[in-house]
Design a protein that fits this description.
The protein is mainly α and about 400 residues long. It is built from 16 helices and 3 strands. Helices cover about 70% and strands about 5% of the residues. Strand 1 and strand 2 form a beta hairpin. Helix 9 runs antiparallel to helix 10. The mean pLDDT is about 85.
Length: about 400
């Protein structure tokens, strides 16, 4: 047995999962299981940009390999395909370790991807319907859709050019806010708050704002702090880019003309579903899974509205909604034999405090420290409640698995 090649193959499966945005515990558990399938027990350590594997082999030597990872955006198709590959390899380990690397290459080459035009349409749809979701009217929705489209085009162009993620997010946020402010300056009867908040959702990095809290709560300090730094940098890039554009256009933008609309609970749930659908191309969610992910977003928002009706507290409602989304995601994961992350990434978008992120940024630009701090801590509190809700479900399932194993 060529243990160097075996270790390289097991590490490559984990690296591919990490590269496509899989959560840290899944990456570590996958590599552990692959090693166990070949009769080895080693140490696996992963953080968002690095994977390290060490194995004492039967020949008396200890082998170790470390791979640096440069994760791009979350790719659900990649996570599902490599998760399926690891299941098959664990069930039937190949006799030749070289087969591991071969199957990894074949899987990577066979991944399906959406064309750029469809991704741009997704940015438009996501921003359009999230503006309606934030109680905007058709004028705000159209403006947000155009701003989201411009932002998406900037993201795609800079991504293809290999630009730094921070600068790419900053430039895209600037383009988004400039487009919204430009439309307002031209006389469009829109509320900038709703328009920019709807557009900003295409830049919000999904579960990053809740994952770092989940990692910290579970004691994974290194991964948690690394993810926290990424969340802070993303939020900072969004705030700097959008804030710069808003400052430049402040004198040219008239008083906000749009008024908040009022929709029924069922309408909000439908808007949540369609808004989530717009993010499926950018996160590469393929097939029927896209509709099931969006259904999770609808379920989460319906539970949130029910919680608000019962308690009138956004923190409690966010907590119970996150529990509902996590339970739905785990159920679908078992039903379709794919990672729960596939459903969480999209389904959590309606619960992410996108509107309060914009409000905190706006208060900071205006120099209103008290309102900025109040909105900022409210945003962080909601993110904490979402993380706690996800953690409750995952911990309960982990205890159940241990009880069955014991």
């Amino acid at each position: 047995m060529d243990y160097d090649l075996l270790l390289e193959g097991c590490c490559e499966v984990g690296r591919q999962l990490l590269n496509h945005g899989a959560e840290i515990p899944r990456v570590e558990d996958t590599v552990h299981r692959l090693l166990a399938a070949f009769g080895l027990e080693g140490e696996v350590f992963a953080i968002p940009n690095c994977l390290w594997v060490s194995v004492p082999c039967p020949d008396g030597r200890t082998r170790a390999v470390m791979r640096r990872v440069r994760p791009a955006s979350v790719d659900i198709e990649g996570i599902e395909r490599f998760n399926d590959l690891s299941r098959r390899l664990c069930a039937t380990p190949p006799e030749d370790p070289a087969e591991l690397l071969k199957q990894c290459r074949e899987t990577a080459e066979s991944l399906r991807r959406y064309p750029a035009a469809l991704c741009l349409l997704g940015y438009f749809v996501g921003a359009f319907f999230f503006a309606l979701f934030f109680s905007g009217g058709w004028a705000e929705a159209a403006a947000a859709g155009l701003a989201g489209l411009a932002c998406g085009a900037c993201l795609v162009l800079l991504g293809n050019a290999g630009a730094n993620p921070f600068l790419s997010t900053l430039a895209s946020a600037f383009v988004l806010a400039a487009a919204a402010c430009g439309l307002s300056a031209l006389g469009a009867p829109i509320s900038l708050e709703i328009t920019i908040a709807g557009g900003i959702m295409v830049l919000v990095p999904g579960l990053v704002f809740t994952n770092f809290m989940s990692d910290l709560l579970t004691g994974d300090l290194v991964a948690g702090l690394a993810t926290f730094a990424r969340a802070v940098l993303s939020a900072g890039a969004i705030a700097l880019g959008a804030g710069l554009a808003m400052s430049l256009f402040r004198e040219a933008v008239p008083a906000q003309a749009g008024a908040a609309a009022a929709y029924g609970p069922v309408t909000y749930c439908v808007l949540a579903f369609v808004a989530c659908l717009g993010f499926c191309p950018s996160f590469n969610v393929q097939g029927i899974g896209a509709l099931l992910c969006c259904l999770g977003g609808t379920v989460g928002w319906a539970v949130y509205l029910a919680g608000m009706a019962l308690w009138g507290n956004s923190f409690a409602a966010s907590l119970i909604a996150a529990v509902a989304v996590a339970a739905y995601s785990e159920w679908m994961a078992r039903l379709r034999r794919c990672p729960a992350t596939s459903y969480l990434v999209i389904a959590m978008f309606p619960l992410v405090p996108g509107l309060t992120i914009y409000q905190a940024m706006d208060h900071g630009l205006r120099g209103d420290t008290d309102l900025f701090l109040e909105t900022f801590f409210r945003t962080m509190g909601i993110a904490g409640c979402l993380a706690l809700g996800l953690l409750v479900v995952s911990s309960a399932l982990e205890l159940q698995r241990k009880r069955r194993a014991g």
